[in-house]
Amino acid sequence: MHTLYSKINEHQQLRMPFVVYRKPNASQLKGLFQSDATLYEVNDCTEEGFVFASFDGNKNYIIPKAASESLSFSFDKKDIAIPLPEISHPTKKEQRQYEQLVASGVASIQNGVFQKVVLSRDEVLKTPDFDINIVFERLLQTYPTAFVYCFFHLEIGLWLGATPEQLLKASGSTFQTIALAGTQKASDIETVIWPTKEKEEQQLVTDYIVSQLQPYTDELQISEPYTIQAGAICHIRTDIKGSWKKENTLQQIIHLLHPTPAVCGFPTAVAKDFILQNESYNRSFYTGFLGELNIDSSSDLFVNLRCMQVEDQEVHLYMGCGITKDSMPESEWQETVNKSMTMKRVLGKMEK
Ligand SMILES: C=C(O[C@@H]1C=C(C(=O)O)C=C[C@H]1O)C(=O)O
């Protein structure tokens, strides 16, 4: 029997596509190991497999179940010692650039171009000792409530992440999604106090999702907003569930949701345009979505946040913040620094 890591290493050496993932709070890991090197595309969301889709909506790939070996592995919680990362600090130039980007986002909001925009940046870290087994195990152990994954395709690259954000869970026409926004450093989540700016920003995401879904659903249940912890930070979350009308399809519902104002902005088209024109790098699969499509008759999709793209000797980290009329460039910068710690934390020294 294959162990998880022998299988990952074997497939990676062969340069063959694979994905391994663990759902939030699950004690089982699942893997799809593709038996050819084709880059399969999603056409109408009736396919079965693991989808990996870009932010801009132009790249929708899948590791099809039918072309893969499906394996499952048990995940055991262990106390592993993770060395503190030698924190590499972003440069003053990176900070200045990001703060200028935020300031121009705020100016566009004040000029009435849009109400909210999510602006992000990347950060490149030198990681000559990167070890996929060590980093993936650390992600699994450190973030038990996240959707933790490792995805590889020669034409896409190697991505790992631990995301707190569900895009859509659906079985038949019954579905659930969440509105997640507002960020602060985690303290005691029972007593967290949220500033009005964060509450309004999150409410905007909830209102958008509800208004998008309402015409296509028979009934929608919307929870009260509550606080969740994701690693060393907290967010405000609202749960939204319902069932879509018979004449609608999974593909339509995904299109209604992605990209939500949690990762793009509002109104969507103008905010997306601003992002594509003004961010200094290409998001590619960051803030896209990924997960199970029609596996065992249900779909379980997540937003690709708190992730890294691994290249030869370096990794790219990606992090962004929701910008509203009241955003202060320096605080938003600090928020991206806090978010970067989710991945930096697992990149400390790797003893083989
Ligand atoms: C864009 C990111 O996160 C999103 C933005 C948030 C915010 O603006 O507060 C919170 C959660 C996510 O929806 C990210 O983590 O990179």
Number of domains: 1
What name does CATH use for the topology?
Anthranilate synthase
CATH architecture: 4-Layer Sandwich
Number of helices: 7
Task: Give me the count of strands.
Answer: 19
Residues in helix, %: 25-40%
Question: Which sheet architecture does the biggest sheet show?
Answer: 10 strands, antiparallel
Mean of the pLDDT scores? 95
Cα Rg: 20 Å
Which CATH top level class fits? Alpha Beta
Low-confidence stretches: none
Tell the overall outline: globular
Sheet/helix structural class: alpha+beta
Written as H for each helix and E for each strand, in order along the chain, the element string is: HEEEEEEHEHEEEEHEEEHEHEEEEH
Bound molecules: ligand ISJ
Q: Compute the separation of the termini in Å.
A: 23 Å
CATH superfamily: Anthranilate synthase
Task: Assess the beta-strand content as a share of residues.
Answer: 35-45%
Set down the secondary structure blueprint:
Layout (H helix, E strand, L loop, with lengths): L3 H10 L4 E5 L5 E7 L5 E2 L7 E5 L6 E5 L3 E7 L17 H19 L5 E11 L5 H11 L4 E7 L3 E7 L2 E6 L2 E12 L10 H18 L3 E6 L3 E5 L2 E12 L5 H8 L7 E2 L1 H11 L10 E7 L2 E6 L3 E5 L2 E10 L5 H16 L8
Helix pairs in contact: 2-7
Bound molecules: the ligand C=C(O[C@@H]1C=C(C(=O)O)C=C[C@H]1O)C(=O)O.
